Amino acid sequence: MDSKDWKIFNYLRENSRAFIKEIAKQLNIPHSTVYERMKRMKNEGIIKKFTILPDYKKLGLDVCAYLLINFDPRSLRTQEEVAREIAQIDRVYGVDIITGEWDILVKVRTENMDVLRDVIVRKIREIKGVEKTETLVVFESIKETC
Questions:
Q1: Which tens digits make up the pLDDT trace of 60-112?
Q2: Residue 31: left (phi > 0), alpha (psi -120 to 50), or beta?
């Protein structure tokens, strides 16, 4: 990616709904160049999809938490299998396999603490391969881009 690609990419990160004409005008890049580069980035998988960043509180999802999970290798499952099963749970918004003391990082959004408890205790902790969890509740999000 060259500097024009990065300009287009970063503009789209902030406003994925922008029309090509608006992007071209704001970045001072020809309309046809913006179109072709966006098309190429999408075809090459650089841009996977165009999406939104909702206000979760207005949607009633007031609680955001991160779960640190230790994987149990004695479970006869792979870490990826466990992570993929966690990813299928309703209210799970992100799952990453990580390095360090913990093995999996999970982002959860719920209506309240009771629902958060149910997601963790009755769903995630019941998955074969989840050995231990630690929950980090978010007080305030300062920056969120995806």
A1: 999 999 999 999 999 999 999 999 999 999 999 999 999 999 999 999 999 99
A2: alpha
- Residue 63's contacts (CB-CB under 8 Å, 6 or more residues apart) are 109, 110, 111, 112, 113, 115, 116, 137, 138
What is the domain partition of the chain in residue ranges?
3-43, 63-137
CA pair distance 23, 40, nearest whole angstrom: 16
Rounded to two decimals, the pTM is 0.80
Longest dimension (CA), the chain: 57
Neighbour tally for 20: CB within 10 Å: 15
- Domain boundaries 63-137, corresponding CATH code: 3.30.70.920
Closest by CA position to 25, among listed 17, 36, 33: 33
Answer yes or no: CATH 1.10.10.10 is held by domain 3-43: yes
Tell me the mean pLDDT in the region 22-48. Answer: 92
